[in-house]
Design goal:
Oligomer: single chain
InterPro entries: ATPase_P-typ_cation-transptr_C, ATPase_P-typ_cation-transptr_N, ATPase_P-typ_cyto_dom_N, ATPase_P-typ_P_site, ATPase_P-typ_TM_dom_sf, ATPase_P-typ_transduc_dom_A_sf, ATPase_P-type_domA, Cation_transp_ATPase_P-type
Subcellular location: Endomembrane system
Number of strands: 27
Protein name: Putative cation-transporting ATPase F
CATH topology of the largest domain: Calcium-transporting ATPase, transmembrane domain
Strand content: 15-25%
Family: Belongs to the cation transport ATPase (P-type) (TC 3.A.3) family. Type IIA subfamily.
Radius of gyration: 34 Å
CATH superfamily of the largest domain: Calcium-transporting ATPase, transmembrane domain
Bound molecules: adenosine-5'-triphosphate
Shape: elongated
GO biological process, one term: intracellular potassium ion homeostasis
Distance between the termini: 81 Å
Length: 895
């Protein structure tokens, strides 16, 4: 125990490793001992990767082309002997960097906290019972059970392995899964070839195993190289990337225009210093300084709104992509249905039975046929023995530990007086072939001294019948199997929406202690069928119809039988009206998909809404087929084999409760409640977020356009500049934060889920929005230039005239903010009081503007000057006129 890390665990025999770690493979550690070791070795956790240092992240805020222009402008203004202006410009750059830094830190922190809240769990043996514990609680000597889909929680020496394969790419970079076994290896074996070890943070892709924890936390291989698997830290989204590209374009356009302004002025004989200030003003004005910070804030608000509704965003771009989803591919069991299984129908020994009772309550009876039938009791026994699930009862509450399908089988057996734990004592289990969705069955081997070993198999009807040769009759005698009759019976159950499982058995040669897929590949004795209901979730029904209104197609993809899928699909309103009865439903099965060329599948995938008996690999083909048609696809998944499809989908959605670690890691979003309706909520939030982003952009750009134009026009006409660089900065910074950001709190517009999905291949701004930006930009130009000249003529003071121009800008923007609350409706239609942040922002902005105008300190800094009351009325007039012009434009569009 002392020098754990120096041990070459891979060179030891498994029992030696157990002995060195003072553990017990059958019982695991005792809780007190585990606690003692935890204190000694510390929790099994690796501190998240450090990432960039705060200083570096702060400095990176200056690393933006538009900021270079501002920095350049600041330094040159200083060189020209305008220290106040220079300080203001550099001050703004600094404020911008601080705001950007804080926002980025906040968004990254929120994502990190969400990522941390998703604890990895492990199945651990402690004092003889299997428990699910957070991976952090593991300590050397713990005995851990691994199944496909698990993330290996610590470094393990494997004690027993069955067909175990692990994806070790996180550690070794090797992308193909590695096969594992338990034999000792030579000392020189490199990490990637240590087949008898399983390393922390790698993923089990197939099979099962037990292993003993040899090192935890920072002592694990991954901890030592402290290279944590990819954290969700990408803050770029398709929109931010488009904005970045736009900024780069803007940079050159602004530089060219500023140079033009400078040259035009100088050629007209104006002083070069003045013209330089004009060029600076133009550059400063045309840069939307507040845009990057606003985008991050709005996205971050979206992330927390979604989290509040049960959708955890792992990758920020998903917030935005969700709003544009056109197809949702969802699992059936547990997502569209309640995953509350109850066996209601049985078939054994050529007789059909009904089962009464509800849920996991063992009250209920089996009725309708010969109750002493051996086929019946063997069907129920098979269901109870070939089962890894337990139902815990505490205080009248029943909780399923394991799989609800298996829980239903336990309850059905109980109704006939068969208790699974008693049966397991009578027929101890020797070996298990775990359920894997690509095989669709599970098998267990039972036997003891003096008893012939018997394998019980349960699974989907097709694979079990395909392996069966005979059937058991009610009197216990075997008979040849009439597969067609059993299929007909299974179909009758499935078309009522029942999930049907078939049970079979096979005696293995005496002395057999293990069961393999080969042992049960033929010669099974069919015992009977159990059919269970799994009611659709009522909220899923509403969500499906809401998606339909939103122009988003819902497709159900399930491993279940075609008729079961069709019956449930019909109840949920999938597949149109024709799908009222299972027979009329259009269902595409995995078997048919397998024979289809890609182009045929592309057409079929678009026209079909129900996919049954689909294996996980086919999900990937389906996603790609839909994407080839230009669809934006959200796909749910829970198993390890779903990971490739989740990665391929535009939005991979993993189940928070029932999902494997592998699925979660591959996903963009996690549903905390595994509920389909949560996807709908997330799509709705996604649309709201995108709307608000767009509203901010459409609100902010006219200001930049107006400012750029007013400078350009003044220079071309040889007039005095109506606004100075520092004044432009004042306008841009204060209005973006005080006014613009309040749009982030804009409630979702009514009818958000009645629109068609946004086309992601279209530019951010359509023609209509560009026209609106130009309209408001033109109003700003006319009003500011006009009122500036008017004030200059009447007062003769440039400072006063400029103050009026600034007030015009601010007031027009403030009123335009109300227009910007909706692209189509007026603020009054939305309800005037529904965004109080916005009203507060409006009032605060007015106060700031009064200070800007009358406070001597502000006058000194911003070259402003007190103006008369009439000038305020003029500015307000411009604002109100602008408001009505935009409302008029909206009305014209609406027709
Ligand atoms: P979905 O993809 O909608 O969640 P599903 O959960 O039904 O569908 P799978 O888990 O792949 O899909 O199951 C496929 C089939 O395997 C089921 O229809 C059932 O017949 C069988 N099956 C499911 N669970 C078990 C189990 N624990 N043991 C044996 N067979 C099972």
């Amino acid at each position: 125990m002392d020098s754990l890390n120096e041990k070459n665990w891979h060179t030891l025999e498994a029992p030696q490793a157990v002995e060195l770690l003072a553990s017990d493979p059958d019982k695991g550690l005792e809780p007190q001992e585990a606690q003692r070791r935890l204190l000694r070795f510390g929790p099994n956790a690796i501190a998240p990767r450090k990432g960039k240092t705060p200083l570096r992240r702060f400095l990176l805020q200056f690393h933006q082309p538009l900021i270079y222009i501002l920095l350049g402008a600041g330094f040159v203004t200083a060189a020209l002997g305008e220290p106040v202006d220079s300080l203001v410009i550099l001050g703004v750059v600094l404020i911008n960097a601080v705001v950007g830094y804080l926002q980025e830190a906040k968004a990254a922190g929120a994502l990190e906290a969400l990522a941390k809240s998703m604890v990895t769990e492990a199945t651990v043996l402690r004092s003889g019972t299997m428990q699910r514990l957070p991976a952090e609680a593991l300590t050397p000597g713990d005995i851990v059970l691994l199944r496909s889909g698990d993330k290996v929680p610590a470094d393990l020496r494997l004690l027993a392995a069955r067909n175990l394969q692990a994806d070790e790419s996180a550690l070794t970079g090797e992308s193909l899964p590695v096969e594992k076994d338990t034999s000792p290896l030579p000392e020189a074996t490199v990490l990637a070839d240590r087949r008898n070890m399983a390393y922390a943070s790698t993923l089990v892709t197939y099979g099962q195993a037990t292993g003993i924890v040899v090192s935890t936390g920072l002592d694990t291989e991954i901890g030592r190289i402290s290279h944590l698997v990819a954290q969700a830290d990408d803050l770029a989204t398709p929109l931010t990337r488009k904005i970045e590209a736009f900024s780069n374009f803007l940079l050159w356009a602004i530089l060219a225009l500023a140079a033009l302004t400078f040259l035009a002025g100088v050629l007209r004989g104006e002083p070069a210093a003045d013209m330089f200030m004009a060029a600076v003003a133009l550059a400063v004005g045309a840069i939307p300084e507040g845009l990057p910070a606003a985008v991050t804030v709005i996205l971050a608000i979206g992330v927390s709104r979604m989290a509040a509704r049960g959708a955890i965003i792992r990758k920020l771009p998903a917030v935005e992509t969700l709003g544009g989803a056109t197809v949702i591919c969802s699992d059936k069991t547990g997502t569209l249905t309640q995953n509350q299984m109850t066996v209601t129908a049985l078939y054994a020994g050529r007789e059909a039975y009904a089962v009464s009772g509800s849920g996991y309550d063992p009250q209920g009876r089996i009725e309708g046929g010969d109750l002493s039938s051996e086929a019946l009791s063997e069907t129920l026994l098979a269901g109870a023995l070939c089962n890894d699930t337990r139902i815990d009862e505490a205080g009248g509450e029943r909780t399923v530990v394991g799989d609800p399908t298996e829980a239903a089988l336990l309850v059905a057996a109980r109704k006939a007086g068969i208790d699974a734990s008693e049966a397991a004592l009578r027929l101890p289990r020797l070996d298990t072939l775990a359920f894997e969705s690509q095989h669709q069955y599970m098998a267990t081997l039972h036997g003891r001294e003096g008893l012939e070993p018997v394998a019980y198999v349960k699974g989907a009807v097709e694979p079990v019948l395909a392996r069966s040769a005979t059937r058991l009759l009610a009197d216990g005698a075997p008979a040849p199997l009439d597969a067609a009759a059993v299929h007909a019976q299974a179909e009758r159950m499935a078309s009522r929406g029942l999930r049907v499982l078939a049970m079979a058995r096979k005696r293995l040669p005496p002395g057999s202690a293990t069961v393999d897929h080969r042992d049960i590949s033929s010669g099974l004795e069919f015992l009977g069928l159990q059919g269970m209901i799994d009611p659709p979730r009522p909220e899923a029904l509403a969500a499906v119809s809401s998606f339909r209104a939103a122009g988003v197609r819902v497709k159900m993809i399930t491993g279940d039988h075609a008729l079961t899928a069709a019956a449930i699909g019909g109840k949920l309103g999938l597949g149109g009206r024709s799908c009222a009865t299972p027979a009329s439903c259009d269902v595409l099965t995995g078997a048919r998909m397998a024979g289809m060329p890609d182009d045929e599948l592309t057409a079929a995938a678009a026209n079909t809404d129900i996919f049954a008996r689909v294996d996980p690999d086919q999900k990937l083909r389906l996603v790609s087929a839909l994407q080839r048609r230009g669809e934006v696809v959200a796909m749910t998944g829970d198993g390890v084999n779903d990971a490739p499809a989740l990665r391929q989908a535009d939005i991979g959605v993993a189940m928070g409760r029932g999902g494997t670690e592998a699925a979660k890691e591959a996903s963009d979003m996690i549903l905390t409640d595994d509920n389909f309706a949560t996807i709908e909520a997330a799509v709705e939030e996604g649309r709201g977020v995108y709307d608000n982003l767009l509203k901010f952009i459409v609100w902010t750009l006219p200001t930049n356009l107006g400012e750029g134009l007013v400078i350009l026009v003044a220079v071309l006409l040889g007039a005095a500049l109506p606004i100075l660089p520092v004044q432009i900065l004042w306008i841009n910074m204060t209005t973006a934060v005080v006014l613009g950001l309040t749009l982030a709190f804009e409630p979702k517009e009514p009818g958000l889920m009645e629109r068609s999905p946004r086309r992601t291949d279209h530019p951010i701004l359509d023609r209509q929005l560009v026209a609106r930006i130009v309209l408001v930009g033109a109003i700003l130009l006319l009003a500011s230039f006009g009122f500036f000249q008017w004030e200059l003529a009447s007062s003769g003071s440039e400072a006063q005239a400029r103050t009026v121009a600034v007030n015009v800008f601010v007031l027009v923007e403030a009123f335009y903010l109300f227009n910007s609350r909706s692209f189509t409706r007026s603020a009054f239609e939305l309800g005037f009081w529904t965004n109080r942040w916005l009203l507060g922002g409006f009032v605060l902005m007015m106060v700031l503007q009064v200070l800007f105008t009358y406070l001597p300190f502000m006058n000194a800094m911003f070259h402003s000057a007190p103006v008369g009351g009439l000038s305020w009325i003029k500015a307000a007039f411009a604002g109100v006129a602008g408001y009505f012009a935009v409302e008029f434009e909206k009305r014209l569009r609406r027709g």
